[in-house]
C-alpha cells in the first residue's frame, strides 16, 4: 500500500466517509469535505486532523480542503402495527440499537401519543430536551442514541383529548428537531391506522415502513391494514417482523408455538412483502425492556434476532439509496 492509499483509508475512518478521495498535484493535496450537520468544534477538529495527516504524505507541502454543506437527508423508518400491544415500541427501540451497532447514525422518535414508552425502554426517563432556535435538541438514550418522545412534550394521559392537528404538530416537532448528524430516524408510530397516522406519513414521507405483528390471525389482519396505510401514500414496505413468535422457555430455551409457526411469514408472502425475521416471546425481553436495557445492546440469542432484523433493514436501505 502506498502512503497516499494509506492516508485515503485513514481519511475514510477519520471523517466517517465525508471526504472525497484526495488528489496531489505539485505538492498540493486537495479534497472536499462534507461538513453538513457537524458542530463547529467537531468540524475544526476533523479539518485539523486532515491537514496534519495530509502533510505526512511524502511530497505534500500544502493541504486544501473544500468544505461543502451537503446535508444528507434524514431517512425515516416508520415502525407501525395495526393494533396496540404487539411489541411495536420494543421492536423500535431494539431496531435503533441494533442499527447503531451496525454502524449507522441512528435517532429514535417515540410518536406513540397514547402510550409513550421509549424513555423507559431506552433509559432516558430522567432527561428533558432543551430547545435551540425553536428546535428541540434530542436527549440521549442507551448507547448514546439521540431520541425524543411524545412524553417529552406532554404529560402522560393529556394527549388523549387532543385533536388530530394538535397531534400532528407535536409529531412534527419531534421529527423536525435538531438531529445533528443523524442519518436514520426510527419512528415508533402511533398505534392504529387512522387519520393521524396518514397525515404523519404524508407529511414526513418515510423512506420505508416496518410492520410488526404477532402470530395470531387477528393481529395479522390488523397488519394488513397498516400495510395499506403506507401503500395509499406510496411509502415502500421494508418488511414484516413477527414478534412474540413462540414462547422461549426461560429454563431450557426451548421454543413452543401456541399459535403455530410460520403464519406471519406466509402472510408476508401473500402481501408480497419481505419477511424480516421473528422475535420470540421471552421473559428476558420484557424484563430487560422494562429496566431500560434493550436486549439488542447486549449479546445472546435475542440480540442476535434483533441484529438479523436490523441487517435486513440496512440491506434494504442500501439497495434503495
Ligand atoms: N418479544 C417479546 N417478549 C416478551 N415480552 C414482549 C415482547 N415484545 C414486547 N413485549 C412486552 O409486551 C408489552 C407490549 O409491548 P410494546 O409496548 O412494545 O408494544 P406496542 O405494540 O408498542 O404497544 P402499545 O401500542 O400499547 O404501545 C410490553 O410489556 C413489552 O415488554
Q: Please give the alpha-carbon distance between the first and last residues.
A: 31 Å
**Spans where pLDDT lies below 50 across 5 or more residues:** none
Number of domains: 2
Strand percentage: 15-25%
The overall pLDDT, averaged over residues, is 89
Structure description:
It is a single chain. The chain is α/β, with parallel strands linked by helices. The protein folds into two domains: 3-68, GMP Synthetase, Chain A, domain 3; 75-319, P-loop containing nucleotide triphosphate hydrolases (Rossmann fold), CATH 3.40.50. The chain contains ten helices and 14 strands. It has helices spanning 3-15, 40-54, 88-101, 118-121, 164-175, 195-204, 217-232, 263-270, 283-290, 301-319, and strands spanning 23-25, 28-34, 62-68, 75-80, 106-110, 130-132, 135-137, 139-140, 146-149, 184-188, 208-213, 237-248, 255-256, 275-281. Helix 1 (3-15) packs antiparallel against helix 2 (40-54), helix 3 packs across helix 10 and helix 5 (164-175) runs parallel beside helix 6. The longest helix is centred in the last third of the chain and has 19 residues, at 301-319. The chain is globular and about 70 Å long. Residues 81, 84-90, 112, 115, 117, 191, 243-244, 279, 281-282, 285-286, 289 line the site of adenosine-5'-triphosphate. Adenosine-5'-triphosphate binds next to helix 3, strand 12, strand 14 and helix 9.
